[in-house]
């Protein structure tokens, strides 16, 4: 079946602009995660959804970052007034249930470049 | 979550078995051992997990020592496509935090 998909695959934006990143999880996966990975660095957790609610937003780096999920499916991560330090690969993952949280299936990521 | 220690890098000849070690001497009884890998420019990929018994799937085998203080991921016939950073993660299955936290992992290079 189809894996996790993300769009766009690449996004170049000017500093100060808003961007919206999309994630389509694997069908039937109730849990969804957003991570960020800066060049040459490890994964940085941003936010986690169980269904349409977000029990853990602890990783969102500032109030410029927000995310939502509708219909227990698609999720969007929005970054307002982008800064150069926001440049990174944004990865989305999903898992079948909350209890199986560590078997996460990742999408290919969106490479964001803020100029 | 228990701390893990992995070698920084390893080489393996194509077609041979790749054995990747992980030390987790502070592991507690309800913590699982998970392995993921990340091929360059791709998202991480789940490989396998286990609690105390050895596990095998279509990708790899996981050998956990009897005292659970260390484990080894085995890729039985490594190919060039297995070149990646391999991460060993130890943590409980439940709990309020759901995110994965990767350490620095082992860079496996499969040589032709």
Question: Which SSEs are present, and which pair or pack?
Answer:
The complex is a heterodimer of chains A (115) and B (112).
Chain A (H helix, E strand, L loop, with lengths): L4 E3 L2 E4 L5 E6 L6 E7 L5 E8 L2 E4 L8 E5 L5 E5 L8 E8 L9 E2 L3 E5 L1
Parallel strand pairs in A: 2-11
Antiparallel strand pairs in A: 1-3, 3-8, 4-5, 4-9, 5-6, 7-8, 9-10, 9-11
Chain B lengths: L8 E5 L4 E6 L7 E8 L6 E6 L4 E2 L4 E4 L5 E6 L8 E9 L13 E6 L1
Strand/helix succession of chain B:
EEEEEEEEE
Based on CA atoms alone, the radius of gyration of chain A comes out at 13 Å
Average pLDDT over all residues of chain A: 90
Major β-sheet annotation of chain A = 7 strands, mixed
- Tally the helices of chain B: 0
Class derived from helix and strand content of chain B? mainly beta
Helicity range of chain B: under 10%
Give the oligomeric state of the chains in this entry, treating copies of one chain as homo and distinct chains as hetero.
heterodimer
Task: State mean pLDDT of chain B (0 to 100 scale).
Answer: 90
Shape of chain B: globular
Biggest interface, residues from each chain: A-B, 24 and 21 residues
Q: Strand content of the residues of chain B, in percent?
A: over 45%
From the alpha carbons, calculate the radius of gyration of chain B and give it in angstroms: 13 Å
Helix content of chain A: under 10%
DSSP E strands of chain B, number = 9
The share of residues in extended strands of chain A comes to over 45%
Overall strand count of chain A: 11
Model regions low in confidence, pLDDT < 50 over at least 5 residues of chain A: none
Helix/strand structural class of chain A: mainly beta
Please trace the helix and strand order of chain A, writing H or E for each element: EEEEEEEEEEE
């Amino acid at each position: 079946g189809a894996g996790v998909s993300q769009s766009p695959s690449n996004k170049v934006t000017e500093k100060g602009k808003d961007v919206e990143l999309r994630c389509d999880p694997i069908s039937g996966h109730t849990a969804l995660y957003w991570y960020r990975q800066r060049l040459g660095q490890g994964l940085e957790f941003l936010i986690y959804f169980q269904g349409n609610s977000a029990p853990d937003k602890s990783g969102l780096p500032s109030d410029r970052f927000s995310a939502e999920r509708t219909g227990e499916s698609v999720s969007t991560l929005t970054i307002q007034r982008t800064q150069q330090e926001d440049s990174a690969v944004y990865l989305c993952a999903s898992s079948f249930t909350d209890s199986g949280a560590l078997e996460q299936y990742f999408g290919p990521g969106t490479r964001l470049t803020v100029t | 979550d228990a701390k893990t220690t992995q070698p920084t890098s390893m080489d393996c000849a194509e077609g041979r078995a790749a054995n990747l070690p992980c030390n987790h001497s502070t592991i507690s009884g309800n913590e699982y051992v998970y392995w993921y890998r990340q091929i360059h420019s791709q998202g991480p990929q789940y490989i396998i997990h286990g609690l105390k018994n050895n596990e095998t799937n279509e990708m790899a085998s996981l050998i956990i020592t009897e005292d659970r203080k260390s484990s080894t991921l085995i890729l039985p016939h490594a190919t060039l496509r297995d070149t990646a950073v391999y991460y060993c993660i130890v943590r409980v299955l439940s709990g309020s935090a759901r995110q994965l936290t990767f350490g620095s992992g082992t860079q496996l290079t499969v040589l032709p």
